[in-house]
Amino acid sequence: METGRNPASGPKKSPFTPKAIIHQRFAAKACYKVEEVQEVAQNGCPGLVIPQKGPCLYRCTLQLPDFSVVSETFKRKKDAEQSAAEKAIQKLGIQPKEDNLTVEQAWDELAGRLSYLFSIEFLPSIHPLSGHFRAALQRGGHLSGFIPVAAIAAFDAKINSLCKYINPEVESNHILVMSLIIEAAKRLANTLLFSEEKLSLQRLNPHPPEIIQSLLKNESSFPESISIEAVRIPASAEKIVEPSILDASFGNYYLDAIAKELGVKDASKVLISRTIGKASSETRLYFCAPESITIGPSSELHMKLASSFREFNALATYLSGQEIYGDAILASVGYTWKSTDLSYEDLSLRAYYRILANMIPSGIYKLSREAILAAELPTTFTTRSNWRGSLPRDILCTFCRQHRLSEPVFSSDSFEPLPDLTGRKRLRDTASSGDEINEGGLAATATAAAQGGCTLVYRCTVKIYSKYQDLILLCSPKESYKKQTDAIHNAALKVLLWLDRFLDKVAMSVEEMTSSAKGLDVLIYPQQFVKEFSSCQFLPKYRWSTATLADSSLCSSYSYVQKNTLEDEVASVRISGEYSGTTPSNGSLVCVTYNIYLVTEREGIKEQLEGSKEFEFEIGSGATSPVLEAVVTQMSIDQFACFTMELPSKEIVLAVARDSTTVLSLLSSGTCTMKCEVTLLRVTVPLEDRMEQALFTPPLSKQRVEYALQHIRESCAASLVDFGCGSGSLLESLLAYQTSLEKIVGVDISQKALARAAKVIEHMEEHEACLFGDIVLSSFCPQILIVSTPNYEYNVILQNSSPQCQEEDPDEKSQQQSCKFRNHDHKFEWTRQQFCQWASELALRHNYDVEFSGVGGEPNKEPGFASQIAVFRRKDGSPANADFTEHFDVIWEWSSSSNSRS
C-alpha cells in the first residue's frame, strides 16, 4: 500500500527564493512587469477549419537600476517572476547559499540574523519587522527598546526558515520558534539583553539619539488616535464571537494596545499566530502568553506552556493550525514590505465568518461567486463554458493551502477508446503516461497520437499529502474524458464533494468515512487523515437548512400540487409577469437578477443581505441553492418571483451581512424570515437544442410535438400520459392545440425533476431504459405508446454543422470525427439498429405492434432521422390494465372538463 512517506528532515528549498534575493539587494528599485502571451495550438484535424487557442502563458520583465531581463514563458505569473529574478541573479554573479545547511550552520546563521536585526542598518529599512523596532524605541519607561520575542518569531521569514533547519516541528509550534530565538540570542550576550520576565530582547548599546530623532522626523503623518475594528474569539464554547475595538494611537505600540484588550500588561505577554486567510494580508490571531516560561527542551517547554493555560481555544487553533489557549483577538494590522507606516484595516464579523467559509470547499466556491446564500458547489462538472466561479482544481489547491497541506498531485493516464455496440465507448489502455500535474501546470498531451488521427481519452488520479508528505487521500475516478482538463476538474470535484460531506459531519466513524468516500471513488488513509483534520469538529456548519415550497402561484398554463415535492425547501412562491413560453430545462445556462432580504413582518424591517444584477448558473448541476433553482425552473423569461426561505445558520447570515449589529438585533428578535426576489433574465438552451435549431426548421422539438399531435388526432385519444415529462414542456405545447384529449397526466422518475429539469429516456442508464419499457407496457398497458430518442448516427451531421457559440469553451469543439452524445447528461444514445432491436423485442414480449419513423432528416438517406421514433399499438384483444395507481403518486394533471390543474 502506498503511503507517500517522505521523512521531513528539514526544508527542501533554500531559505531565499530568487525574488527574495533580488529584494534584499534592490528592494523597491526592482520592478516586475508581467505580460500575457497567447499561443496558437495546432488543430490536429486538417478538415476542421476552426481557430484553436493555446494555453494562456505569462512572461515577466524585471527592470533593475542598471539593466533588465526577460523570463521564459510560464503557465503561472509567479513562476515567470521567479525565472526573471533567477536570470538577474546569474547576470549579477550572485551565488545563492547552499540549500542543505547543517544544524550548527543554521544556529550560526540564526545568531547572525538576530545581530543584523538589531543593527543600525536594519532600523530604517522597509521590512515587516523594522516597524516594530522603531515603535519599540518610542515605548515609555522600562519597556523602551524592548522587542517582544513573539514579534521576531512572527514577522521575520528568514528566522522561521532557519529554525526549520534546527527543528522541523516549528511549523506548527510558535512557542518552539521563540525558544530557539532565545537560545540564539544567548550567543550574542555581548550585544543583546534577554529579559525572561518581559519575553523580550533589547540592544545592550542603545541606538544613538540622532538616529532615533532622524527616524521620528521621517515618520509619515499618522492620526493622533485611530480605532481599528477586530474580533474577539473566546476560548469558551459558551461565549459568542464578538466585535472588539483596538486603539492604535500615534506613538503607542499597537501590540501594547492588543495586550490591553486581552487584559495583560504589555506586548511581551502577547503571542502572535501566522497569517490567516490570504498570505498577503496581515490578519493574525493574538493571544496571551503564559504567566511564566522556563526555557528548556522543546517538548518540556511545550507541555509546561500548555498546562499553564486555563482553556484550549479550539476555533482559534483551527484557524491558525497552531495550538492556542485562552481568548484570542483576530485583527488585520501590522507593518509590511511596502511602507514604514502602520498598515491596518477593519475586520468585521462579516470578514471573520467569510474567513471561516473559506476553510471549506463549498465556502471557497461561494466566495468566488460572491454569492454565499445563492451559490452551491456544483455536484457535476459538465462543460467549462457552463461552469461559473473558481474551477474545481483551483478550489482544491486553495483548500490544501488553507489547511496547510501539500499541493495536490494530479496524475493523468491516456487511453484509446474502442467502439461498443451500445453506443458508448470502451477503453483500451494505450499509454499510461503517469503525467504528474502539480502547481506548475498540466502535463503535455500525447500530440503524436492526436496528429495520427487517434482520439485519446483521459483519466486523472488525485493524491493529497500532509505537510510532511504522508498520503492522506487518493481519488481514482473510473470515468474518462476527451480532454485532460475535464478529467482533472472532475477528479478534483469528487474530492471536494467528499471533503464537503466530511466537514459537515466530522464526527463520523472510520467506517462511515471509508464508506462515504468509496461512493466518490475516494480512498481515505484514516490514521493520517484524522490527524490532519482533528480540529475540524469545531468549524461552524455552512450547510443550507432546508425550507418548504408551498402556496405556489405558477404560470397560467398549469401548476403543481406540492405533495412530497422539493421537500422542505421553500416556504412560499409568488410568480408574476406574462408567461413567454421560454423556460429553463436540464443543462440550460440561466441568468437571473436576485436579492435576498432579512425581513420582520411585524416591524416592517427589510435588511438586504445579498444580491446580484446578473447571476448565472447551470440548471441541473447543483450550482445554486436548490430552493432558488426550484423556483427558476418554474419561470419563463422576464417573469418575477418572490418567495420566503427558511433562515440558514447564524454564521451564514453574518458572512453576508454588511451591518452585523442590525442583523444580530433582527436575528435575536426571533421573528425574522428570509425573502428572495428573483427575475429570470435569459436562458441559454443546451448544446443539443442549439444544434437542432441550427439545422432544422421548425426545430426538432416542435416536429416531435406535431408528430405526437398527428397520432393523438388519428386515435381520437381522450387521455394522454407523458412518461419522463420533467417540467412539462411537451404537455405545455400540446395544450396550445385543439385535440380530443380530456385528461393529461405527467409522469417522471424523479419528483424533484418535475420542477427542476426535463428528462427524456436517454437520461436514464441503459438498463433503466429497458426496465422502463417493460413497466409501461405491462403495468400501464396504453393503447398507443410513442417513444422518441436521438439517433446516435446522426450526431456526426449535427456536430460538424453546428455553429460555435460565444459562450462555448473553444476546445469543446471536437478535433476528431468521433461523436459526442448530444447532451452531457445522456447516459447512452442508440443507433437505428439498437433502437429497432430494443423496440421489436419489447413489443413481442407484451403483444404490441410497433412501427418506426422519425423527424428531421430522411428515412431512406443516410444516416436516417435525427430523432428516431417507435410507435407501439396494443393488439386487439389484449387486456388493458386500468388499475395502476399503485405505481405512481399524482404530482399534477390536467382535465379539460373543469379546465383545472391538480
Would you give an account of this structure?
It is a single chain. This protein has about 900 residues and is of the alpha+beta class. Strand 15 (about 455-465) and strand 16 form a beta hairpin. Helix 1 (about 20-25) packs across helix 2 (about 75-90), helix 5 crosses helix 7 and helix 14 (about 390-400) crosses helix 16. The longest helix is centred in the middle third of the chain and has 21 residues, at about 485-505. The N terminus and C terminus are likely disordered.
What structural class do helix, strand and pairing data support? alpha+beta
Count the E strands. 29
Q: Describe the biggest sheet?
A: 6 strands, antiparallel
N-to-C CA distance: 59 Å
Q: Spans of 5+ residues with little confidence (pLDDT < 50)?
A: 1-14, 42-51, 296-304, 420-435, 437-453, 544-571, 755-759, 803-817, 898-902
- What share of residues are in beta strands? 15-25%
Rounded average pLDDT: 77
From the spread of the alpha carbons, the general shape counts as elongated
* Number of continuous helical runs: 28
Percent of residues in helices? 25-40%
Rg is: 33 Å
Key phrases:
single chain, disordered C terminus, 28 helices, 22% strand, five-stranded antiparallel β-sheet, alpha+beta, 902 residues, 31% helix
